[in-house]
């Protein structure tokens, strides 16, 4: 949601404007200008100037609404990455979700609460102004209505709208199951979005000259898309939390004799594995006298003079297990993603309860396992690319999804 121009920072939160918003600015200015020109006797360009000011104030209202969500999230220690204004309003991109249903409710309701407070304030202001149809009175009255609409529209109880977030918090509170809550609230969004498309198109096709139906269908489509997206992300969050890392790790590591020389190792293993096309990603561990001596990283060989390859033993270049970044077999795929990110390593060693090596997990193994469980196909070439570049696919942002899960830690 960061496509667009960054304009300013508010409370340390960068504010972006999506290009589609400028279209709305122009359309809104013209629509208001024409309407006010017909209704009031202001003369000249005043109706259009007032229309433009009204559009800018709509923009300010949406920003204040999003700031309501953002500042509440910040009080819960949640980082707000940006606020983006686009076609149908704004989106505050926050790092993770709230940890409790109560906190989730507070973040959700804060936006509509700001809009409602503005509506009340502006209505009071209008009521004390001298009555009449001066541009100032009309502008303020219009702005009050805009904020009431912002409040009520966002309270529609389906994700991605604030009302959907409130519904989610309520179901979460009632069932204690955050995932079930998001699924139901997303399902409600799908239902309402589909209904809005159907009703909007029906009205547009049966009431000649009325364009409101098309707008309704467009908004319905937007809700449907985003509700489906919530469902998908939640399904992935669930999989990351519930899949043990042992399902994503490979057990195809080699344990080699730590007492052999480096020369023997390269001849016997590296070259033959290279011939079979797998030495680049083949994990090796050295063992001697029945004990693991550590992991062998073929890259280390480059730093050792060739003349010493004949005499130096493999275990002298082993990285001891105690110095490796490891996880237990019982850890989750979520743990593995976060640990890979923290350590910036290509792979993690997975240990049994007895501290023996159980396997090795890398990003490619994680993507394959989660994609398979989610019913998504990842092409073989893509898996190879992930292995080589140690980077997740752009359309499968597992790190961001992992970080969005609220954890009690
Ligand atoms: Zn909102």
Describe the structure.
- The protein is of the alpha/beta class and 409 residues long.
- The protein folds into two domains: 5-155, no CATH class; 245-404, Roll (CBS-domain).
- It is built from 13 helices and ten strands.
- It has helices at residues 19-39, 46-75, 101-128, 135-154, 162-175, 178-206, 212-242, 245-248, 262-275, 333-343, 363-374, 380-389, 398-404; strands at 5-10, 13-17, 80-86, 89-94, 254-257, 284-288, 291-296, 326-328, 347-351, 357-362.
- A four-stranded mixed sheet has the order 1-2-3-4.
- α7 (212-242) packs across α13 (398-404).
- Zinc ion binds at residues 65, 69, 111, 154, 162.
- Residues 65, 69, 111, 154, 162 line the site of zinc ion.
Coarse structural class: alpha/beta
Mean pLDDT: 86
What is the first-to-last residue Cα distance? 28 Å
**Which band does the percent of strand residues land in?**
5-15%
Please describe the structure with a list of short key phrases separated by commas or semicolons.
single chain; 409 residues; alpha/beta; CBS-domain; 2 domains; 4-stranded mixed sheet; 3-stranded mixed sheet; 10 strands; elongated; binds zinc ion
In short:
The chain has helices spanning 19-39, 46-75, 101-128, 135-154, 162-175, 178-206, 212-242, 245-248, 262-275, 333-343, 363-374, 380-389, 398-404; strands at residues 5-10, 13-17, 80-86, 89-94, 254-257, 284-288, 291-296, 326-328, 347-351, 357-362.
